[in-house]
Specification:
The chain is an alpha/beta fold and 720 residues long. Helices cover 53% and strands 8% of the residues. Among the domains are: 200-300, Serine Threonine Protein Phosphatase 5, Tetratricopeptide repeat (Alpha Horseshoe); 355-495, Rossmann fold; 516-691, 3-Layer(aba) Sandwich (Rossmann fold), CATH 3.40.50.
């Protein structure tokens, strides 16, 4: 930084000092002398910010209207991490035609999360200097932060027209496109940035994350390893590498990467959250919950981590405690606090024929939520219900393609801020808004705290209270949520007739195989659950069953068994419970078709507890395989009971581990009974409420309309 008259001006205008700021200073009578100003400039150049602050304040006492001195003071304060906003504001007021003064103020406002004010400052800078590409870049980032993705892409495009060789603008464009769900285009932008600067670590990291979204996990690993070769101390690259390894099933390696990230930056709360999810996948539930709590100690407003904490506790019997409910309410209070001005009136008029229903979900794809939805959506009467999809995740597939035409429109929420998403839904004049994620990944529960619709409902994707008081109802049935348990929820329980679930039969035409025990001469118990569901209590119970049936075998299949290290650790757990490894077959992830065919090798399913199967139980029923389930206290723990009761399999529900063991032995000893049940099970459940999508659609339509009528009547009474 120099104040020599022919040198570039310190304000960044590109003009010579004598034709820019020197001229401005001389145009004012009340400005410091050149010598005084040059002394401040020298302090800035040397990085002596404390002395620069003292010198600037001293000059301001004598020359309070010197905008350049205020500008230097603001920089001195910023570099010392002191409160600098008032100084930046003063500089911008005193220098209304100085583009950099407005740019600096906008940058500070953006760092404080005051995005709209920041955007206004950048616009002012651009009015003064339309070719100010840095202002366009920062404005695009602020627009991106508040979910104005179209405007962000436009800003970055303008920046690139001015400076096509800006790797920063190309990278920023890629970030916006990725959030838009245009991942292929984002990859092109990141590659453009890297052609300009092959060592641009941020762009390499972003390219790797885009490859993860595209399912190109090996390519993603290459990106993150490349980033780390350039910058071995890059915590974000280690965290991202861990995410890619989770996708590849390399869980122990992923845990190592998350720990490396935390060794570099112990306050990296996102790495702790990701570590917790990997630990959960490994079945290390206690460690996972501890990691999440550490993340929340660092960042108490980390909504995704808070959701992870609540979700993970569902794997444990401890989640029935009052402390769990209080933590759910705490989450609800947090998101309500962030929704600074929730809607209290709505644009939706009283419907004469059709109710407009919004569906918010990150799982409108080949996912348990998608499997339950597909058949139902096809049966919804479009003359009574207009469906609008609000996907919260950018990955789509063939199931998405099949159900998308069943919605009148599809409006993605990914990349949008909570406020922007809520405003979109509010503009759509939705009568009823349904959340299908709860505290699972890709949820947008904070949007519901803005109350964008007058009636809001939780259903399907989660099995406990959300804690969000702005969600009015939770859809349930009388089995999974008896009246005595209503106090477990912040939502009002709304009962559906028969069942809260309706499953879509798999499209694959697999016939039901004959009971394998008739050919094998021994019973094969099956389990298709992830490690986190199989607690030591479950293993102890299974061990007693296998002990009582010396010839029986256990076939356990889950995605984590693709890792030899995981298989070794699980084998040790099995042996600790006295289970002979020669009686256990472990299989890793396969396609859905192969998974369904694997039921031909299983005589009956042993359910997990307190987190039982849901989708897997329904799929097993379709393949002719019944599941023995242990009913618990909560909605989730009663899920197996609800499914079996709805299917007419009350005899396959028990209430204690002792009964579970006795019932398993009794059922497994009756091969003819199992064979007879198996041969007619698909036909039996096909006509049950669990698979009757047409009747379930009528029940759901009636419930949604009645919810609306309750709201309308309540509003009418309140208005009177």
């Amino acid at each position: 930084m120099s104040s020599k008259r022919n040198a570039p001006c310190i304000c960044g205008s590109g003009k010579k000092f004598k034709k820019c700021c020197e001229k401005k200073r001389k145009s004012r009578s009340a400005n410091p002398s050149d010598a005084e100003f040059n002394q401040l400039v020298s302090l800035y150049s040397l990085g002596h910010y404390a002395e620069l602050e003292r010198g600037s304040r001293s000059l301001i006492e004598r020359f309070p209207d010197s905008g350049l001195t205020w500008k230097l003071l603001s920089v001195a304060l910023l570099m010392q991490e002191k409160v600098a906003l008032p100084a930046f504001q003063k500089a911008a007021i005193l220098m209304p035609n100085d583009a950099q003064a407005h740019f600096n103020l906008g940058s500070v406002l953006k760092s404080l999360g005051r995005f709209e004010e920041a955007i206004a400052c950048f616009r002012k800078a651009l009015q003064i200097n339309p070719t100010y590409s840095e202002a366009l870049n920062n404005m695009g980032n602020a627009q991106n932060d508040i979910g104005k993705l179209n405007e962000a892409v436009e800003s970055f495009g303008r920046a690139l027209e001015i400076t096509p060789s800006s790797e920063i603008a190309h990278n920023n464009m890629g970030v916006a496109l990725k959030q838009f769900g245009k991942t292929d285009e984002a990859v092109e932008s990141f590659n453009c940035a890297l052609k300009i600067n092959p060592n641009y670590v941020e762009a390499i990291n972003n390219l790797g994350n885009a490859q993860i979204d595209l399912g190109k996990l090996s390519e993603a690993v290459d990106c993150f390893e490349r980033a780390l070769a350039i910058d071995p101390g890059n915590a974000a690259a280690y965290c991202n590498l861990g995410n890619a390894q989770v996708g590849l099933g390399e869980l122990n390696e992923a845990v190592g990467c998350f720990r490396r990230a935390l060794a570099i930056d112990p306050t990296f709360s996102k790495a702790l959250n990701n570590l917790a999810n990997a630990q959960c996948d490994l079945g290390q539930l206690g460690n996972a919950i501890e990691s999440i709590r550490q993340a929340l100690e660092i960042d108490p407003d980390f909504t995704a981590a808070f959701s992870s904490l609540l979700f993970l506790q569902n794997y444990s019997a401890a989640h029935v405690s009052e402390s769990f409910l209080e933590e759910a309410h705490q989450y609800g209070r947090m998101v309500a606090r962030k929704a600074v001005s929730p809607f209290v009136s709505w644009q939706c008029t009283v419907p004469s024929e059709r109710l407009r229903v919004g569906v918010v979900s990150g799982d409108l794809r080949a996912h348990p939520v998608g499997y339950f939805l597909e058949g139902l959506l096809a049966q919804i009467d479009p003359t009574k219900i207009e469906l609008i999809a609000y996907p919260t995740y950018s990955q789509f597939d063939e199931l998405t393609d099949r159900i998308k035409p069943l919605f009148s429109s599809c409006k993605p929420l990914f990349g949008q801020s909570d406020q922007a998403a809520a405003e979109l839904i509010h503009r759509d004049a939705v009568h009823v808004l349904i959340d299908l994620s709860g505290h699972s990944i890709h949820n947008r529960l904070p949007v519901f705290a803005w109350k964008p619709a007058p009636v809001q409902v939780s259903w399907l994707g989660y099995f406990s209270t959300t804690g969000v008081k702005e969600i009015d109802y939770l859809l349930a049935d009388e089995v999974c949520v008896p009246e005595a348990r209503h106090g477990d929820f912040s939502e009002t329980i709304w009962y559906l007739p028969d069942t809260r679930l309706c499953f879509t039969p798999p499209a694959s035409d697999f016939s039901v195989a004959t009971l394998p025990a008739l050919k094998n001469g021994f019973i094969t118990f099956g389990c298709f659950q992830v490690l986190a569901k199989v607690s030591d209590d479950v293993l102890e119970t299974w061990a007693k069953i296998l002990s009582a049936l010396p010839s029986a075998r256990l076939r356990w299949q889950c995605k984590q068994f693709g890792s030899p290290d995981v298989v070794d650790k699980v084998s040790q757990r099995l042996q600790q419970h006295g289970i002979n490894l020669e009686r256990v077959d472990m299989y890793g992830a396969v396609s859905r078709e192969e998974y369904l065919m694997a039921h031909a090798e299983v005589d009956m399913i042993l359910d997990t507890f307190p987190y039982p199967g849901g989708t897997t139980t329904c799929e097993a029923l379709w393949m002719g395989v019944p599941t023995l389930t242990l009913a618990g206290e909560t909605l989730l723990a009663k899920q197996g009971e609800s499914i079996n009761t709805t299917s007419g399999l009350n005899n396959w529900v028990v209430n204690s581990t002792t009964d579970y063991i006795d019932k398993a032995v009794t059922l497994a000893s009756d091969l003819l009974g199992l064979a007879a049940l198996r041969s007619g099970l698909r036909e039996k459940i096909s006509v049950s409420p669990l698979f009757d999508s047409a009747q379930f659609a009528r029940n759901l339509e009636d419930a949604l309309w009645e919810m609306w009528r309750v709201h309308a009547q309540t509003k009418k009474s309140r208005d009177i």
